[in-house]
Amino acid sequence: MAQEPQIVTDTRPEPPDTGNEREILCGFLDFLRATAVFKAQGLSDADAARRVLPSLTTVSGLLRHLADVERSWFRERLDGQDGVPTRWSDEEPDGEFLVGADDSLAGIIKDYEEACAESREVLSRYSLDDISLNTASGHNVRWILTHMIEETGRHCGHLDIVRELLDGTTGE
Its domain of life (predicted)? Predict the structure, then answer.
């Protein structure tokens, strides 16, 4: 049985109304990152891990997926780092969605926020026109930021739906 939703204060940063291209792109990405966390807050660990759809999609799984995507795009692809951890693998392509009883929502949110901080640190060393160091992708920073806005925004929509199915919470 789902718990009653808790009132959570909305502290998301608003994207800038004006600014240069980088400020606007980063502002929208940070807003969406904060929205993903906002959508998860107030849930119990059990509800955050509860499946309400036929797929493996859960609130906790979506946040873990987003953490892995942050690390993959910014640390591995853009910065060319080796050994960047992800929960998916050839053996378990949906590994980030496999949430266990020992996985706390607070820990999952903390890991996602750490992944976002790692991404910001990597991003601070590059201009929008720089090409990723992982030559397999060949994308520039502008493309990666735009893709991450799309990726994070799409999953915020999933979080909206899953949260509403869990406890009826709706809203921005």
Answer: Bacteria
* 39 vs 152: CA distance, rounded Å: 12
The tens digit of pLDDT for each residue in 82-115 reads 999 999 989 999 999 999 989 999 999 999 999 9
Which residues are within 8 A (CB) of 30 and not within 5 positions of it... i.e. 6 or more apart?
13, 15, 116
Q: CA dist 128 to 72, 76, 135, 137, 149, Å?
A: 18, 17, 16, 15, 15
Task: For residue range 115-143, list pLDDT tens digits in order.
Answer: 999 999 999 999 999 999 986 778 999 99
